[in-house]
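User: Sequence in, structure out. Go.
Assistant: Echoing your sequence, followed by the structure tokens.
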Amino acid sequence: MAYLGAGITRFNTADGLTVTGDAQIDTNTLVVDSTNNQVGIGTSTHFDSNTKLTVAGRINTSNGTATGSINFGGGTVVNVGSLSNHNLQLMTNNTTRATIDSSGNFGIGTTTVNRKLETSANNNGGAKANYIRITDTDTTATAANQQGGIEFYASDSSSGAGVTASIEVVYAGSGGGGEITFNTAANSGAGVSEALRIDEAGKVLINKTTDSIAIAGTAISSTLGVRAAVDGNIGLLINRLSSDGNLVDFRKDSSTVGAISSRGGVATNVILRTATGQGAGIGGANSGVLPCDEDGLQDNEINLGASGTRWKDLYLSGGAYLGGTGSANKLEDYEEGTWTPTLPSGGSLSVGKARYVKIGNYVNLSFYVTSINPTAGNSVFKIGGLPFDVKTDSSYYVGGTIGYTGDNNLNDVMILTGTTLDYLYFHLNDGDGGAVTNTEMRDRGLTGASLDAMIASVSYTSA
């Protein structure tokens, strides 16, 4: 290796410096190997004999505004880019082909990049100039093997970092046919599972991998139509928002043959059976659901249920007309239940049974109470707790029936109630207009013994 001075043939300000043979400045600042025609900057070691220039360190270039850099040293990576706040561009044939902008967005075919990855080209004439290709080099395609895909990865620490969704292409078989799957995850740590597939025939499969109607999920195609199978839930839900109109159109050869519509509460007839003389269905008119058949709306012809195929419960917010259409045929309320007899004027009792039936505003109640023990005094003896108050018509009074009184002397006692009352009271059948008091009932034997009982019923009109 020759040092500066040896082999120098010319050195002046006019002609520059000419060195014959090797040259070295400092130890490794500049090393010229004339034998192998190699130059090293910061090093004398080269990758191989074909390497002409090796630089150990960073090369910076600047035009006074933008500063670029190629870093060959410091760590295990090679950095190529800009040190200033400017874009990095890659060129071929003196044309910019790719751009990495100062925000780290990568653009192919464009110098203005709006997303992390953007491609730009003119596809006019089907040139496929703006396509991205993923190539699988496996030459023995196997069904269900992945051909390629895109993954969406979350770094969320609450559920653990992981893939939250992916799009994959899998082989349909050894012939290389492809199917696209869309996969999702409940959270980043759960792992993805298939949610939708487009198979090699173009069928769209939602939450299933086969078009079998026996498997929960939905299949859509031009040959199958729409086939939905749901496990224990609604199979089809249609909701038209904002305006009235058709919910569903039924068409044959592009001509409308029927519809189910919502127009101010009036719906088209839905015929459930079209056989002549056996047709049955429902229609809508005048804010009502009406019986109809293949000939239209019908009156007093179509049954709701049959002797062996009955409906279970009927829920109405209004009344039902039974046997006719007049007001006297209207049943507006029916109710059965229990109630709890009490002694409002003081005392105690035990309730065996206490029930009522209410039909419209007609109430029939019955009760069986034992161990009746009214508090002594001149207060009127009452049995309270009626499930419904008596109607408010003036001079309205009704009597009931006492069927059993245990071993007490109540044979001449009558049970009554009247207008606006919420309790029963008692009179003696002796023409006296006064109500029986607690003390009088005690004198007749009601002092709390187990056989101090009463079974009675009363019917009245409720308020």
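User: And one key feature?
Assistant: The chain has six domains: 8-61+69-80, 87-119, 146-229, 243-268, 269-302, 335-461.
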